[in-house]
Structure formats: C-alpha cells, structure tokens
Design brief:
single chain; about 280 residues; mainly beta; 7-stranded antiparallel β-sheet; about 45% strand
Length: about 280
C-alpha cells in the first residue's frame, strides 16, 4: 500500500488483551476505511447464556472453543471444540431471516461470527468437523518451508448462493502460508490466534509487512499479494473469509509470477553448503 495511514488501518490490533463477554464487532460491512464488505466479530458466552434471534444478514458462526447446543430448524445438536490447532471447526451457516438458537453448555464458549448482505435464499446448514477435511499444502516444496494445513468449510462449490467463502489455516512454526504469494480480486479478512499468547507472525499486504499477534485481524484488499509467516516455535492459526464480488465470485487465486518456480518440486532452492543448487 502506498498510503501509510491505510496500511495501518488494515491491521486491527485493539483486541490484543482479549475479548469481553458478548459480541464484539471487529469489521463492519460498509465501514469508511478499507471496507471488505464483511461483518466480523467474536462472540464469547458463559455457561447457560444463549442467543435466539433471526439473522439480519447471511451469517456464519465458526466455533473457536467450548461446547454448545445448537438448535436449527427444530433439530438440537451438541457441538464442541477443544483445540483450534488440532480439530476442525463446526460452522453454522444460515441465510438472512433464519432463526438459530445457540446455548453455551461449557464454562467458556467462543465463536467467530461472519455476516454479509445477501438477499438469496438457501438451506441453513451445520458443517461438522467430519465435513471439513484437513488439506496438507506445500509438502515437498522449497524444503518444506511452506508446509501448512488448510481447512475449507465452504466455497462456491458447496454453497453457490452464499456471498462468502470460509476456511482456516494452521501455519506451522517458522513456515509460510498463502505462499507462494497470491492474490485475487475479492476482499478478504484473516483473524489470528497462536499456540502461546506471546506468539507472533508477519503478514504481507503487497509491499507492506505487518507484525501480527494474538487476536489481531487483517483486512486484505483485492489485488494484493498476502503471504504469511509464523515465528519459529509458534503455531499460528487464522480464520480466513473471502467476500464474493457481484458478478465476480471467488474461484481461486493467482500466484505472483516471479515466485511460481517454488511450485516445482525439482527446484528446492538454495541450501547452506550447496550455493550452486536451485
């Protein structure tokens, strides 16, 4: 980004002390600075607390931690997650106007909440952990320097009426993700957690590099390359949400041409002691 003020606005750091009980909005659709078209927040609940109201927009709840009872279209289901890093999420996904009831049944329950304007009707759905497969990316490439786990909850293929694509990345310590650098026309957000509270990583947004910590959120504008790296010793998790553009839905990304060579397993890059090898 050329404008340093905008660059700073892209990284939301004000929640590093954690989130209070209730719903805390982090980004809002239509906001003045770097609008991604996404409402994103974190909802923390205590045992016995519940919510039961019709969604004003297309909405997804991504379970970060804890146990809860979800009632959707008359069916009650108990959902739980003990680890962001070792377990896939449960995702509740509903169109505008649909009611869902969520009650916390453990001492602490935390959800990521994502909303976007969408007049289309579609079937409400619960995506369970067994529906969301771990995909190992980067294996065998550049000395395993970009090895990571990607979990796709849903995209255009699974939910063609949705205006959202939702997934997670488990960034291994000292390694890269969203790599080689890639970009797409659609806006996106990343929300970060680490295996230890003092953990950190670096997020690239075009030519700008930002240090990211626990509970940070980054707003990614369309067209910007956005590779990530975690500091050695610290696993880095991020929720990623892409907003489809009208008439131009997200169907994937384009790699930065100058770094495409790293996708060739025959080119592992320079190694100490083997300066002539590439």
């Amino acid at each position: 980004m050329a404008d340093s003020t905008q660059a700073r606005a892209a990284v939301i750091t004000r929640h590093r002390g954690g989130f209070p009980r209730g719903l805390t909005w982090i980004t809002r659709e239509g906001e003045a600075e770097l609008d991604t078209g996404i409402d994103f927040g974190v909802h923390r609940m205590g045992r016995g607390e519940s919510l039961h109201e019709p969604a004003a927009k297309e909405t997804a709840w991504i379970l970060f931690s804890g146990q809860a009872e979800v009632e959707l279209e008359g069916r009650r289901t108990t959902v739980a997650r003990a680890s962001l890093f070792d377990e896939a999420p449960t995702v509740v996904h509903i169109p505008a106007g649909t009611r869902v009831r969520i009650e916390a049944t453990s001492q602490e329950v935390e959800w990521g909440v994502v909303c976007a304007t969408n007049p289309k009707a579609f079937e409400p759905r619960l995506f369970f952990p067994q529906d969301i497969q771990d995909e190992l990316r980067g294996k065998g490439l550049v000395q395993e320097g970009a090895l990571r786990t990607v979990r796709l909850a849903f995209d255009l293929t699974h939910r063609p009426e949705s205006n959202l694509v939702i997934g997670e990345v488990i960034n291994y310590p000292g390694r890269w993700s969203s790599y080689p650098p890639h970009h797409h026309a659609q806006t996106e957000i990343y929300h970060y957690r680490f295996t230890l509270p003092q953990g950190y990583g670096h997020a690239e947004l075009g030519e700008d590099v930002h240090k990211v910590r626990q509970y940070d959120t980054v707003k990614i504008q369309g067209g910007l390359d956005h590779p990530q790296v975690s500091a050695p010793g610290y696993g880095m998790y991020y929720l990623w949400v892409v907003r489809h553009k009208p008439g131009n839905p997200y169907r994937g990304f384009e790699f930065s041409e100058e770094h495409r060579w790293v996708l060739d397993a025959q080119q592992q890059g320079w190694r100490p002691g083997n300066a002539g090898e590439r």
